[in-house]
Structures are given as C-alpha cells and as structure tokens.
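pls read this protein:
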Amino acid sequence: SATTAATGRHEALKKLDILSAVAKHLDVPDLLALRKVSKPCLFAVRLRGWEAYKHGVAEGDGFEWVWDAVPKRISVDCSRDFPSFLAPKSQQLAFVALTSLSEILPGPPPAAPDASLDGAATANSSPDPGMVLQLCGEACTTCLPALELFRDLRLKRGAARLRGLQWTEHGTTSQDDFVATLRHAPHIHTLAVDCGDDVDAIAIAIAHCPHLEHLTLRSPCDVTRVVELTKLQSLTIGFEWTAGSDVLRAVLRMPSLSSLTIDCIDPKHWNAAVTKATTMNGANAASSQLRMLKLKHATSGNTAVYRLPCSVFPALRHVRVFHQAVDATDIMSLKLETFVGDIASAKVLDHAKLRSLRRLEANFVGDVSVVMQRELNLQAVATHQGVGPNNVVPLNVLEYVCGGANAGNLTDILCCMRRGELHVGALERALPNAERIRILNASYDPAAAPPDLSLFRELTALRELKVELHFDSDIPPAFWRSLNDAGCLVALSLFTSRLIRLDAVQPVNLPMLREVVIGQSGDGYAEPETETVCADLWAFLAELPALENLGVYLSEHVNTRAAMAQFFIPGGRAVTRLTKLELAGDLPPEEDAAALLATATNLRTLELQPEETIDGTCLRGITAPIHTLEVEFRQGTMSVPPLMVHHMVRLGVRHVRFCFRSRIGVTAVFHDITARCPQIRTVQYQEPGFPHSGFAVPDIRGWLSVANPRGAR
C-alpha cells in the first residue's frame, strides 16, 4: 500500500542519515572498509567523500607565496587539504577522486556519452559543479594512487562529472586513448596536456572540448589553430615560442582570452607581434583583452625590453616578466595592479601614475627616487637584494615598510637580503594586515636597538612567518614578543645564529600554529644557560595546542637532552599529535634516537638529515606505520643499509626518498629495494649530478622517481 511504501522510504532515509553521521567521523581506511558492507553504506561513504571535496576546494589555496593575482581555478591536486582526515594525503586524494567520479552522488547520475555524436556527448544535468582533477604524474608520490585510480575510471560513466583534467601521460598514451577519455568527459573546461609529439592536443581540444576555457600545453606543438578555441580564457605555452608573429598577434587579439603565459619567447618575436597589433589597432581593429600576462626569455638577464603599449593592452592588470624589463612609460600608461620584473628607464617613474599598483616585485634599471617608492600604495612587496648588474637597483622593501605612507596596508612581505642589515625603523612598524612575512638571510645587531624592540607590531592577521637572521649579539627575549598578537599564525620558521628564547611568548596565544621549523647555528650562551634556554624552547613547543608538523635542526644549543625531557615523552600530548617530523643536524646516537622516535606514535612522515652516517637502528623504536620516509646519507654511503630496508618493510613504508652525497649504482640499489619491499610504491633519490636514468622520472624538485612494478596499490 501507499502507507507501507512511505514507511519503507522513511526507514531507508533514516538509516542513510545514521550511516552518513557515522561516516563523518571515520578516516579513509575505515571508510573504504565500510563501503563494502552494503549499498546504503556505499552511498554514505561516497557522500562523505563528496562533502570533503566541496569543503576542500572551498578552502582556497592556503598561504603559499603566490604572485598570481588572478585566483587559481579550483582543482583537486596534491596541494589540497581535505578536512577531518588523518590518513596520508595520497590516500585522501585518491579517496576524494574516487567518490567525486562516482555515479552514486546527489542528483541524477550522468548519462553515458553517445558514441554516434563524435565527441559531442551529452550528460544529464547534475547539481554538482564537477571536478577538476590535476595530478602531477608518476613522479609525485602523493598523486600516484589517484592517477592509477583515474586510469581505471576514465572510461566509465562517472567520468562525465569531470570538468577539468591534467593529462601527463608522457610517452605512455596514444591519441586514441586521449580522445576516448575526452569523449567520456564532454564538459571539460580546463585541460593541461603533456603527451609528447604523438598527440595533436590542439586538434583534439577543438574537436572534443567545445566548452574549453583554460588550456595548458607543455609539449611542443603547432599552435596555429589555437585561435579556433573561441571560448578560451587562459592559455599557457610551456615551451619556446617558434610560431610567427602573425600567429602571436592573432592570439593576442582573441576576444575571449584574458590570461596568457609563455614560458620562453624572445623579445624580438614579441615586439614584432605587438608592432603589427599596434598598426592594426590604428585601423580600428580589436585590441587585446588580456588582463594577466607572464613572459620569460630563454636567456636570463637579456637587455631587451618587452613592449606593452596601452593601445594594444588596454585591459592589462597583472604582468610578470621573469628577469626581463618593461619600459617605465608603458607601465605608467597601463592600470596595473601587479608587476614582477625589471623596470627600464625607472628615473621617469611617477607614483601619481601608479595609483592602481598593489603588488610589486621589481628591479629598477637606473636611478629611482626613494620618495616615489614611499608614496606607492602597495599590498604585497618583494625584493632579492644583490641580484643583477650594478645599474639594477632592487625595490627597497624595508625602506617602504619603515617610511611608506601606506605600509600598514601590506599583506605580503618577502625580503631576501643577502646579509643586509635589518634596521630598527622597519621593526617598529605596525603591520595589522600582514598575512605572510618572510625575512631571509638578514643581519641584525640587538646592541644597536632598544632592548624592548620586537619583530614588528600588531601582527593580528599573520598566517605565515619565516625568519632567517644572523645576530651580532644575544637575542633579547622581547624580540619575539609580537608573536603574542599572532593568533592566526599557522606556520612558523625561525633559523638564527643565536639561541632562540621564546620566554615572552605564550603558547596559548598561538591556537592555530600547526607547522614549526626551528634551527640555530653559531655561537651560543655559556653552557649552563644554554641548557636552560633549550629546555624552555622545548617546553614551549610541547605546550602549543595545535602543533602537527615539526622540523628541528639539532645542535648543542637545540639538543635532544632537553627534547627528551620536555617534548618526546611517552604518551605526551604534543608528541603523539605529530604527523610529520624532520630532524637534521647533530642527531643523537641511534639507540637514543630510537627511544626518541618511539614516542611519536602517530607519525606518518619522517625526514632525517643527520651529520653522521646512520644504518637504520634509529627506526627500531617506531611501531606505527610510516607513509613516507626521507633520509639524507653522508659522503661515502653507496647504498641503503640492510637494517634500514628491514625497518622499511616492518613499518609498511609506501614512499621513500634518499639523498646521496656520493654516486651510487642506481639500478642495482633500487631494484633490490623494490624487490625486498613489495609495499613500496615509489623510490625517489638524488645524487651528485644525478643523470636521468632510463627508468627514473624527474619531477619539478629535481628528484628522480622510480615506480615499483611490484608495489602494492
């Protein structure tokens, strides 16, 4: 009857609500086990993954130092954080990718593509926004599980939920594979391709991606037909531009294109195209609609100047030219908000014509007025002092912080000083809007400053602080007092030449601090006071309420004696919360290190960079499974010690990274590891000169990655 049917539906919905509530409190391994119990459990698990995806992409891109003023396109990638999970990020990424490509999601499932429509496949409407899947490839240990999962799901019905894809199957795919994938994902709007010469990426995009808005090309190809992508909004050319100036002029005049990146282009090719565009604009032709432009020349320090006349680029707002110059007249004619690069003829700059400029990382070619710099209204500033020829003067960030009329508006500060002096006037400035501050390789003399001077003031919005300072005398405790105002601080990195005394900072005032890196080298206090200060430092770290990732450069002045007494305590709240630990410098004897590491019962990532050779005894005390192990070996070590390999098997290590100071027999060493450790998925390594061997894949950090054919998936 109708009453019975309604009751049945009510009971089913009630059961699903209960299962969904339970799933919200489970981690990835438990969720994967729950999905096998029943169909309602499977549905609840997939809803959990979908909610994690939606929340994760809503969080934005974190606090990385990004000069791209145009917001990044939301994507699922290895930099994304998903809430309420403790599993390794590789498992989180694979789980969210699995659930996002599932057919069982809120709303009607996507329809299978119609094979008779030759790329014009359709799908039923769905309330979800779809997913942009951006995987690095096999060289990235975090992306590898999700990449293998995608290979299994790319031709199934759930693939119709894809809205974006980074295709990096270089040398391992065919044009037919690529076409088949896109036919099952007919609503792709974002595409990044690195497939080699065998795949005509642009022709495929024209035929099978009618909604394409964002295209990245990393393999050399003929770009002549790219203008046929009439909805294209952003284009990235990741190779040297060799097409003619007419092609470039046509690209610049694409009415839909708002962002253009060319990783390698000679200024003479660029200027020739701009000259032709200027001539045509004089004949009432359409001007460029670009808002964001990135250019890079193959030869750093080339003296040629890129032309950016306002008549051709009236809408341009964000410019980055890597170590190349743009004329000051062109910059003043545009309404730029962001500029990164060199400014030629800087003497003629007028701050009154730069009122829209908010983000600046510049070197000035020739003399430039200090008064002009102070009058700018900036939100983000960066400089690298000492870079470039003698006639190139970097933007004086500290001078702007000290005397800038609008310095209180700054949100981002990056200053690489090459042992330049950090003067008192800058430190006295209040920075209530600063979110990221990086002061690198600077010098400071506390004796020449007031004893109560602190590192800036009113740091209420600060989320990231990185300081590398050489002190000429002992650091007063008051220097770090301003951290008490940094209630939003998430990441803190301090590396100094003197002992770090945090007596004036209360851990309770840093409720969001999750990542800490501490290091000290050079002269310290007398031995008795050194022990006291070191103990206080470890006690401070132990009292931080949210600490998860810890990196420490161990020395006599930041030593393990105090660490064992104050922080690495069996059952201690702080050490059991750690998921990532990096120990560098003077590690204790391996027997003592084993006892230290045994206290970190929830560790997932361990990085060891000792000054002395280790054989793996230090891993003996660890009982919890380790996801990623990174070890740097000293000069003379030619292979991975057998005892370390034994513990890698025992701990279920999935990804390992080894850095060698000596040349090794790569093939023999790593074939032996992959044979003895079937659970390992990838082995990454560095060695002096590290030539790219036949079975190793280089990644962007210079590591080489070896996929384990026997590895567990």
The longest helix spans residues 2-23. The chain has a mean pLDDT of 79.
